Amino acid sequence: MTTVDHLRQVRLGNLRTVLLALVDRPGSRADLAARTGLTKATLGNLTEPLLASGILVEEPATLAGMGRPSKPLRFHPDGPVAVGAEINVSHLAVETLGLDGETLERRLVPADMRGATESEVLDRVAELIREVTGPRKLLGAGLAIPGVVHDGIVIRTPNLPGLVGSPLAEGLGRRLDLDVELDNEANLAALAHLWPHHLAGEDFVHVTADVGIGAGVVLNGEVYRGVSGFAGELGHVVIERNGVPCTCGSRGCVERYAGLDVILREAGRRTLNSLRKALDSGDPKAGRAVRDAGEALGVGLATLMNLFDVPTVVLGGSYALLHDHLSAAVQSEMDGRVLAGGERHTRLLASPLGEFAVARGAAGLVTRRAVQQPERLFA
What we know:
Elements: H1 3-24, H2 29-36, H3 40-52, E1 56-58, E2 73-75, E3 81-87, E4 91-98, E5 103-110, H4 118-133, E6 138-145, E7 148-150, E8 153-156, H5 168-176, E9 180-184, H6 185-192, E10 204-209, E11 213-219, E12 222-224, H7 255-258, H8 260-267, H9 272-280, H10 284-308, E13 312-315, H11 317-321, H12 323-337, E14 347-350, H13 357-372
Parallel strand pairs: 3-6, 6-9, 10-13, 13-14
Antiparallel strand pairs: 1-2, 3-4, 4-5, 7-8, 10-11, 11-12
Helix pairs in contact: 4-5, 6-13, 8-10, 10-12
């Protein structure tokens, strides 16, 4: 490595440090110097290009105690943003995210995507993205799908078979003239609870349901993907050896007992909102359907807990909305089956991000990459 290359790497490392500090919270140059260990002169050299390019903004001076007034730096509210999009069995969702983690726009559209072609799906997603982003500069897009992906191509997605083999990242990127990164929806929902702020600690499982069930496993602050990207396929953990046939080709999978479509069918309801109203009114059929699903989910989650020994389970998406009626059955099964139970119960939380966790995580994939690889901000 030449001296020039070394100096460039040092500068990028320092710039990454400053950006990460600003993701945590805004601060004056003096505050940033104290938090990062960098000199004020170095901070000035690093932040001036960011101010000139509209990535950062300097707020009016404020006087706090003795000394000179400080001018806090923060990410510019009109600066570049990332967009995240989710393709799911029953809906499409998009969200735009600033570098500071602030949500700017979001949209969720109910849609049955099971029979849709690649072209139909991508045209609808691209249109939704255009609607929520307008003329703003985009850093890139993250795209989520409930299945296994590799190099921007869908390898396996049992509930959206028409998309298997599709180069979704390339197709959406071509429509938007944008870099697009494709990932599994459960992994991205878990990422949304890590970036830009930890919402459930550094070790947890995030589980969510539509027709299928996905789980994102987080270990030591990183999403665990496994060698082939199959880690966290909770929906296809077998809980009944000769049980109900599953779309994956196996039998007795968790999603055939705890998926949202199964809950709705057993409750005699067509929508999640209708189910919630029935539960709130004490409808016994709805209550029984949710309890049965919670027991099945708890059995599957106990397997993950015994494998990974994490202290927290986060119920997201539909499960978060059903948390008050679902959690007791889930917790009961885990308490009886998780070997590390007893005095150290697994913590069961409802996600604060609700139905937009996946789209937010998809956008976060892009903002985190931009902060960790700051040369992308000037591309």
